[in-house]
Specification:
The chain is α/β, with parallel strands linked by helices and about 130 residues long. It has one domain (about 10-125): 3-Layer(aba) Sandwich (Pyruvate-ferredoxin Oxidoreductase, domain 3). Helices cover about 35% and strands about 15% of the residues. It has 4 helices and 6 strands, in the order E-E-E-H-E-E-H-H-H-E. The longest helix has 17 residues, at about 105-120. The chain is globular and about 40 Å long.
């Protein structure tokens, strides 16, 4: 069960692809929207049906490679900002960088920025009518 006050989102960002098993995750996503998923699979291999565009990025592999971890666990949320920036064009990477540098220490900022940039570059996009 998904509990949210947002019933008709323009974008759904899924940090764990196994959540796609629950139809409610993308239930309100409509025409012209975006589904952005952390997965190694390309958009056309997700098996999701809908009148929305799909983007995928393997943020898990990127964060593992770069060592973006907290307490030994891979953390993909910041890296997925790269995919969101790429598909939405709502925010420039330079603006994200400015905020990350204010929020994180130097080492953490560099790791997170590298993950964001690589996720941005490697995001696969399937635009649907």
């Amino acid at each position: 069960m998904v509990v949210s006050q947002i019933e008709s989102p323009d974008m759904v960002v899924v940090l764990d692809q196994t959540l796609l098993k629950d139809d409610e995750v993308i239930g309100g996503l409509g025409s012209g929207g975006w589904l952005v998923v952390n997965t190694a699979r390309p958009p056309d291999r997700l098996g999701v049906i809908g009148d929305f565009s799909v983007a995928t990025a393997d943020a898990t592999a990127i964060c593992r490679e770069l060592g973006v971890m907290v307490g030994g666990l891979i953390v993909v949320n910041t890296a997925m900002l790269g995919a969101v920036a790429r598909v939405s064009e709502l925010v420039a990477l330079a603006n994200i960088e400015e905020v990350i540098r204010r929020r994180f220490s130097n080492r953490s900022a560099e790791l997170n920025l590298a993950a964001i940039e690589k996720t941005y570059r490697t995001t696969l996009i399937e635009r649907r009518p």
